[in-house]
Amino acid sequence: MSVTSPMGPVMLDLEGICLNDHERKVLAHPCVGGVILFTRNYETPEQVSMLIDEIRSTRGSDLLITVDQEGGRVQRFRPGLTCLPAAASYADSYRENTARALEQAASAGWLMASELLALGVDFSFAPVLDVDCGISEIIGDRAFSDRPEIVSEMALAFRSGMNRAGMAAVGKHFPGHGGVALDSHLALPEDKRPFEQILARDLLPFRKLIDAGLEGIMPAHVVYSDVDSRPACFSLFWIEEVLRRRFGFAGAVFSDDLSMEGAAFAGGYAERAKEALAAGCDMVLVCNRPAAAEEVLESLRDWDYERVRRKRLLAMRARRRVERSVLLGSAQWRRAVDDIEQLNARV
């Protein structure tokens, strides 16, 4: 029996390829608003579709289902889906034929989105808008380029493909993770560059995509010490002043995973969640720590969650879906796969 509940502010994960009884109870909590799936939740397209159906039948249609499906190193669902190239793989094509590279990026965005939508996923946390500065291994080839104008062009094309398929996009990691060497999964990186330099370089792709109507953004667990002592994910300056007021961003803001070491400065998990929400995040992610996710849910039971935040999150739902059999039988899918196979052959 389907249960319909208002969309809450917490996104959590699951243990395996099907729901267990305890997870069904957790999903019924009023503060749950989304589920992010990982490789451990995926075996085949048919299996994950059944899992997603089970999640929705437990919670209701307002729940957001998402995954990290950028391509390259970060593609959680693989068997039965198209293997997508890393963002940096488009660089050679761009140098040889810019128009063709942009077509390929749009094809990749459409293909990624279409295949996920056919499984029941709402959106992927993509594209990466970080500018590669040559020092971040955690970003590296996940960035389209070391030139902000090229990142902007390629990301705009990738997002256009996603939108054409019926999927909203999430740009990450605001205001830019490419300028630090440390991995925010393992430590809290500090970017000491002046604000003007970040504005002129790292923030350019974010501004371009926001102007084009970008639906979602994920801030970084990075401290930009020239302007604020708090990581961007917990910073009123970055989220409310820069993102909302100066850039006019009206979409949804998702925290990066609060289980990452870059979030530990805020204290326990409940404190992390409350501080991220207070700074302007619309939804917080708590991954790979089931007990911590439940702690956060209980701590937010009486949270005053504004209606406008729910509206921004509801806009992240899938806009349309195509049956998987219909998708795989379409000429558009075949052309997109051919485009991506040409890119993969060059890597």
What are its keywords?
single chain, 347 residues, alpha/beta, TIM Barrel, eight-stranded parallel sheet, two-stranded antiparallel ribbon, 12 strands, globular
Describe this structure in words.
The chain is of the alpha/beta class and 347 residues long. It has one domain (10-58, 71-346): TIM Barrel, CATH 3.20.20. 41% of the residues lie in helices and 12% in strands. The protein contains 13 helices and twelve strands. It has helices at 21-27, 45-59, 91-96, 98-117, 148-165, 195-200, 203-211, 236-246, 269-279, 290-299, 307-314, 324-328, 331-346, and strands at residues 10-12, 32-37, 64-67, 69-71, 74-75, 123-124, 170-174, 190-191, 216-219, 223-224, 252-257, 283-286. Strands 6-3-2-1-12-11-9-7 form an eight-stranded parallel β-sheet. A two-stranded antiparallel sheet has the order 4-5. It is globular and about 55 Å long.
Which structural class do the helices and strands define? alpha/beta
Helices, by number, come to: 13
Looking at the overall shape, the CATH architecture is Alpha-Beta Barrel
- State the end-to-end CA separation: 48 Å
CATH class placement: Alpha Beta
Biggest sheet architecture: 8 strands, parallel
**Portion in helices:** 40-55%
Number of strands: 12
